[in-house]
Amino acid sequence: MKNRITIVAFAFVVAMLTPTLRAEDFKAGYIDLQRALSEIEEAKSARARLNSYIQANKLSKADAAERERKEMEPFISKIEYIVAKVAERDGLHMVFDKQESGLLYAQRRMDITAEVIRLYNELAKSKSKQK
Fold it and tell me: Taking phi first (over 0 means left), then psi (-120 to 50 degrees means alpha), and beta for anything else, what does residue 113 get?
């Protein structure tokens, strides 16, 4: 019985000392991944090469979609990395994909797409200068 009271008391103290996240403290953002992929220079070039390849090889829609998924995967991975950095920097608890999340409305100030595109292109330019 004494152990149970000690455990309950300890849990109560921990709960009281642990900061709680109130709704007004919650910060979220969103990204338009399709817009990012269409505006990032490296992805635009890759997509142009991909479209030429698809037309030259007359791929079916299914094969073209699979090829596009594979070609865009490295760019999406880099975007996810940058999104995580922006979220950490700006104190965002969650970032949603505008198209895939079912997001119906969000204030424009929550859109981090332009910042992600800018950082991605900066990172790509600095890497190309290092080569």
Answer: alpha
